[in-house]
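Records of this kind hold a single protein each, on a pair of labelled lines. With that in mind, the following record should read easily:
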Amino acid sequence: MLAVLSGVCLGAGTGAVPAAAAPAAGAAAAAKAAVPEGLESFYNQTVEWYDCGATGGMEESADKTGFQCAKVTVPLDYSQPEGETIEIAMKKHVATGSVRQGSLFANPGGPGDSGVEMVERNEIEFSPDLNKSYDIIGFDPRGIGESTPITCAVAGETPAGGAAQGAMGAEDPLSGSIRPDAAGVDPEPPEDTEIPAAGAAAGGAGFKALIDEITKNYKQKEADCAASTKPAGLLDHVDTVSVARDLDVLRALSGDEKLNYLGFSYGTYLGAHYAELFPANTGRMVFDGALDPSLSLGQRGAGQAQGFESSLRTYVEQCQAGLAVREGQRCPLTGDTDAGVQQIRDLITSANQSPLTTTDPNVTVDGSTVRVVVNRLLYSSEYWSLLTYALDQAITQQDGSYIQVLQGQVAADGGSGAPTFYAVSCLDIPVQGDMASWERQYQQNLQNSPTFGASLSNQDARCQAWGHNGTREPAPIHAKGAAPILVVGTTGDPATPYAWSQAMAEQLESGRLLTWEGNGHTAYGRSGTCIHSAVDGYLLNGTMPEPGATCRGNE
């Protein structure tokens, strides 16, 4: 999925200029980073790295696998560093080259995705040159996975930050995995919030009933998590600012005076907060698929609703043009783009009324499952032909077998767990509005995105019901004094719309935008050598693309 394709960079991106303000990586930086007052014991603790397996998380290995693991201690609450503590898990792929440039920290997004798992996929997530030059460190942010986790003990439910592993079978054409980063999407909304309650589209009592169901559902989610999470205060301290403070501790304990960083989607939001808090400690930072930090919860949902609807139209256009089909197959969507989009909506509606059968007599596929699979495949344009295959089977044969296969892969691959997603997001952005304003926004989302608007609405209501809420108003992040930051935006990104990357690059005092004219979520590793060379060029050599640089397609 993340194989690098060959090509050349076109347009304004053909040249490059040195990033004179970007410090040399890692140990080559001259000035020693300051230790925040009162946190000396955390910054000066001894880190015990040990050999661990190439897979399997933090499990110790008797062999030299090229991976090392460690856990470090950080304050639960940075305003009370003498109080309770939690652990943060790191996994490092040791640089394979003879000349080491320091550490490169990476975050895959979410919030809720595991950096420990990400670094295990180092050969597909990062270029050979990055693997050769950097110790690449993935970490599980607080509340996630191998770090002190949010635990929601519900029978049959996967704990936040982890997922059961599964396989699709040797004959399946899907290679790699479907790992969308949510970045503002509820990873898998429960059925009662996915399908509007009766009368909700018309407003009034129907909408209130929908909000009542959301409230009931998320209060129960919070109760399940609060009953099982230790320490109990963790649910109030998994905000992104706290994660950024953890990241600075990790930087220092890894022996790097400056933070070199590659963040995707939500990872850009984390990186921006780090640069705002610790501008003097920034090294070479790349943000791919940026979030606009000035947006409210409702604005995020609205932007994504439009982004996914636009991406759906692009998919339909490519399907009908024969560009998103497998050899020997055909696109089942007839007529023009509007007609094709409507056929997908009709499939969702009909499957909700009469679920599709599958080759397993005990399994059927409803419209919610169809919508989730369509949503997931829009993240990765390289898999659009598989979406076409699944839709052809469903529309022409009323068979949901391959949709169920794709849904099984999505579930097996995990991604952002809903409890962790809300635990972080609801602390980062305060609840705004009331029932009347939520309903107006809901109706607008339905109008702008008939396919996805319902499931991407009512984020404020969900956070209000969750109950662990922040007070910091969303605002632009400028990171005054930070080293140059490269922001990569994809014009057809459904989850983090291109306008968000434009906004991030404009807000950052030292930001520079690199554009990829492509489809799907994020660019590095999914595009061609133009993006690959630009990102690697900055991380390895400190060379920024020229202003206005643009890469096109697979070039």
